[in-house]
Specification:
Elements lengths: L1 E3 L9 H13 L19 E2 L1 E3 L5 E2 L19 H13 L1 H21 L5 E4 L2 E6 L5 E2 L2 E2 L5 E15 L4 H67 L5 H35 L25 E3 L7 H22 L4 E12 L11 E14 L3 H67 L5 H36 L7 H4 L6
Helix pairs in contact: 2-4, 3-4, 4-5, 4-6, 4-8, 5-8, 6-7, 7-8
């Protein structure tokens, strides 16, 4: 880089006044584009409301500061409340995100510090010797000198932010700090959702294992009854074999479910920051995991609370500020330098008034030729801004998809659960009829086995669907950035959990 530097030293106060007035006059100028949030969706507007079938679109704006609250209390399950509180204080990913936020805050302080003069002192005490052959006016001095040098210098340097380079740096650092805050909120929301989803999946496995264990006990009694009937000549060896096969098959399914449960318990332990060896849940309480009813549609402004959307928008603002920094590189940098201190060859006189020295004046750093470096940096900053804008829009579109997927899952899983529940009642009636007909000798035991297998399969489906609905409800809450329900305190303000 070829630079043009101008160093001016003046003994009066007029130079100081001139520099100060120049800084104040030009301080409001900041090159580069001012930030305007890009449209969340390029081709359309955001939806007025989310429904399974979809409706018209409207513009959405990031509003991650809206309250989310302890949404998991909607399920009225004390154990999930305990796990959520535990994870909030012990999870290591959350701790890492909090540390990243603290780092971003310190980077804001670092960028803002360039607004102020930088003062440094470098006291020294040296003994030195000059060269015998050192040149003076083109010829060797012909003499060498040894002497002491004591110095107490202080250097002050202040960059006048004439073209807004520092302001753009600070603007970008602040935007990244807010993005880090939203990243922390995003990690927190994901953690809360994962804890709740793993918990409800684990409880569904508990219910399924209990169902299989109870069913195996019923099959064991059926086997005993069939063996007694065989001894009495009423049943056949085929009936006994079928009863044994049914019992053993049911028992063999329990270890696979137990393995899934242990893996989920280990995952929950890690989420809660605990070693998995001794981690387990409290016994299930009667009436735990209250089912919640999802409305047929939810307002789209709830989506504006998603922290990942707010973080993506702030990264667009930071990229825009980077464009301003790259633009400022084409303009001069005005740096005011001041040196003041004491210097003497004798320690006894270094603090005397005649030992003082000082200088004051601006340096103008003007890029004249950089070989395309500044131009490439500016083009790269524009490309980074375009990439951040695309990532922001993709985040919004993905959020729309998440909400629609989870709403569809809630309502369609409910329809499936209603149908399976009705089918379960029919299956139980069918099993009762088959048992009565078998005891009366009207049908073979195969009819009983078939009815029992059908009843077990449908009842397992009901248990699984109940768990899936709760998991889907948590997924919807995560997709919305919080619950769709209003609390009494927020009802008048129109705010949601």
């Amino acid at each position: 880089m070829i630079r043009f530097c101008c160093r001016i030293v003046y003994h009066g106060v007029r130079m100081k006044r001139t520099i100060l007035l120049l800084g104040l006059a030009l301080g409001g100028c900041a090159v580069g584009p001012d930030y305007h949030p890009p449209p969340a969706v390029a081709a359309q507007q955001a939806p007025e409301a989310f429904t399974v079938d979809g409706v018209a679109w409207k513009k959405a704006e990031p509003a991650a500061q809206l309250p989310r609250g302890k949404w998991w209390t909607l399920f009225e399950d004390g154990e999930v409340n305990r796990l959520e509180d535990w994870a909030a204080t012990q999870n290591q990913n959350l701790a890492a995100s909090a540390a990243a936020l603290q780092q971003a805050r310190e980077l804001v302080v670092e960028a803002r510090s360039q607004y102020f003069p930088q003062l440094a002192a470098a006291p020294s005490a040296t003994r030195q010797r000059t060269s015998f052959n050192a040149p003076t006016q083109g010829a060797a001095t012909g003499a060498a000198y040894s002497y002491n040098l004591y110095a107490l210098p202080a250097t002050l340097s202040w960059e006048m932010d004439v073209f807004g380079r520092i302001r753009r740096l600070t603007e970008g650092a602040k935007a990244r700090m807010v993005a880090a805050e939203e990243d922390l909120q995003s990690v927190t929301l994901l953690l809360q959702a994962e804890v709740a989803q793993d918990y409800f999946t684990l409880r569904a496995l508990d219910a399924e294992m209990k169902l299989l264990a109870d069913t195996a006990e019923t099959y064991r009694r059926s086997l005993d009854l069939t063996q007694n009937r065989r001894k009495g000549g009423i049943a056949t060896d085929l009936d006994v074999s079928q009863a044994q096969t049914q019992l053993r098959t049911t028992e063999a399914q329990i270890p696979a479910l137990r393995l899934q449960r242990q893996q989920l318990a280990h995952a929950l332990a890690v989420l809660c920051g605990q070693p998995p060896m001794n981690f387990d849940l409290m016994p299930t309480q009667p009436g735990a995991a209250h089912d919640i009813v999802v409305p047929p549609s939810v307002p789209s402004e709830l989506l504006e609370r998603r922290p990942d959307i707010a973080a993506a928008e702030r990264r667009v603002a930071a990229a825009n500020a980077d464009v301003g920094v790259a633009t400022a590189a084409f303009y001069p940098r005005v740096i005011v330098n001041a040196d003041v201190g004491l210097q003497s060859v004798s320690a006894g006189t270094v603090f005397g008034w005649p030992s003082r020295f000082w200088s004051l004046g601006p340096t103008i750093d003007l890029p004249l030729f950089t070989g395309g470096f500044n131009k490439a940096q500016l083009a790269a900053a524009h490309a980074a801004y375009d990439a951040a804008t695309a990532a922001y829009r993709e985040t919004v579109l993905t959020a729309f998809q998440d909400v629609e997927d989870q709403l569809a899952a809630q309502h369609l899983l409910q329809e499936q659960l209603t149908g399976e529940t009705a089918a379960l009642q029919s299956a139980r009636t069918t099993l009762e009829i088959a048992n009565n007909r078998y005891k009366a000798g009207l049908v073979t035991y195969l009819d009983v086995v078939t009815s029992q297998s059908d009843e077990l399969a449908i009842e397992r489906a009901v248990v699984q669907l109940t768990g899936e609905r709760r998991v889907a409800a948590v997924g919807l809450i995560k997709a919305l950035g919080g619950s769709w329900r209003q609390t009494n305190a927020d009802a008048s303000a129109g705010r949601f959990n």
